[in-house]
């Protein structure tokens, strides 16, 4: 039996603060996007730019300032990647720039991602897409997900946001898939549902499109890291969707090396086990 640790409740002003932090990180990313930048290749062969690091710096500083009692795991802080099995309580899980390949190729669908993980599940998620100026917030316990186009939340409350719900499954389902990392296995899985409409898009925005009822399925049969999925998982789950493992149970977090297995994100659709 696993012991459930005490959970953290974030109130409206906490969520707006986290939203503003993601927007501020996005502004740093845009400063780099609009100029010239070099691309480095990290040890895991993934690309890195000064935008990833600038976004990380803004978020890390803001989280320490306002939520200093909660530890932070960020893709761009290798020291924070140790011993996830020790992280059974609450921690922030951050991808400062998801969709780095989109960013490098000057395609607009990159995002800033902040999630709170508790007892191995994401309970709150924030995603900001700086080019679109689209901010998404998900509160899983409240079952509430929101979206707004904004660059400054100072005069706003969550009542100003648009509430998000997954759509009722239409007769012909639509899927979102990765622009940079699609696979034949993904296509075979979508065939199980007879999916005809596919939208290829980079980054965690795929979860947001399902959460806001523009698509029904986002199966990911290739590898991802937990920071790629945590905020999107919270937003989609809060909007009434699910992010499932192959056995049909919710995807869990704080796994060894923060490495995700394949997962199946879906709106109002019955889960089908892959072949
Ligand atoms: N071989 C691999 N192992 C682990 N994660 C991978 C991977 N190939 C791609 N990814 C993850 O997929 C993310 C991009 O997903 P998408 O194709 O949906 O935009 C990347 O996020 P970053 O861009 O933050 O590095 C990266 O973490
Ligand atoms: Mg990522």
From TrEMBL:
<comment type="function">
    <text>Converts adenosine-3',5'-bisphosphate (PAP) to AMP.</text>
</comment>
<feature type="binding site">
    <location>
        <position position="228"/>
    </location>
    <ligand>
        <name>substrate</name>
    </ligand>
</feature>
<dbReference type="InterPro" id="IPR050725">
    <property type="entry name" value="CysQ/Inositol_MonoPase"/>
</dbReference>
<feature type="binding site">
    <location>
        <position position="97"/>
    </location>
    <ligand>
        <name>Mg(2+) 1</name>
    </ligand>
</feature>
<comment type="similarity">
    <text>Belongs to the inositol monophosphatase superfamily. CysQ family.</text>
</comment>
<feature type="binding site">
    <location>
        <position position="95"/>
    </location>
    <ligand>
        <name>Mg(2+) 1</name>
    </ligand>
</feature>
<feature type="binding site">
    <location>
        <position position="95"/>
    </location>
    <ligand>
        <name>Mg(2+) 2</name>
    </ligand>
</feature>
<keyword id="KW-0460">Magnesium</keyword>
<keyword id="KW-0479">Metal-binding</keyword>
<feature type="binding site">
    <location>
        <position position="228"/>
    </location>
    <ligand>
        <name>Mg(2+) 2</name>
    </ligand>
</feature>
<feature type="binding site">
    <location>
        <position position="98"/>
    </location>
    <ligand>
        <name>Mg(2+) 2</name>
    </ligand>
</feature>
<keyword id="KW-0472">Membrane</keyword>
<dbReference type="InterPro" id="IPR000760">
    <property type="entry name" value="Inositol_monophosphatase-like"/>
</dbReference>
<feature type="binding site">
    <location>
        <position position="75"/>
    </location>
    <ligand>
        <name>substrate</name>
    </ligand>
</feature>
<dbReference type="GO" id="GO:0008441">
    <property type="term" value="F:3'(2'),5'-bisphosphate nucleotidase activity"/>
</dbReference>
<protein>
    <recommendedName>
        <fullName>3'(2'),5'-bisphosphate nucleotidase CysQ</fullName>
        <ecNumber>3.1.3.7</ecNumber>
    </recommendedName>
</protein>
<dbReference type="InterPro" id="IPR006240">
    <property type="entry name" value="CysQ"/>
</dbReference>
<keyword id="KW-0997">Cell inner membrane</keyword>
<dbReference type="InterPro" id="IPR020583">
    <property type="entry name" value="Inositol_monoP_metal-BS"/>
</dbReference>
<keyword id="KW-0378">Hydrolase</keyword>
<keyword id="KW-1003">Cell membrane</keyword>
<dbReference type="Pfam" id="PF00459">
    <property type="entry name" value="Inositol_P"/>
</dbReference>
<feature type="binding site">
    <location>
        <begin position="97"/>
        <end position="100"/>
    </location>
    <ligand>
        <name>substrate</name>
    </ligand>
</feature>
<feature type="binding site">
    <location>
        <position position="75"/>
    </location>
    <ligand>
        <name>Mg(2+) 1</name>
    </ligand>
</feature>
<dbReference type="InterPro" id="IPR020550">
    <property type="entry name" value="Inositol_monophosphatase_CS"/>
</dbReference>
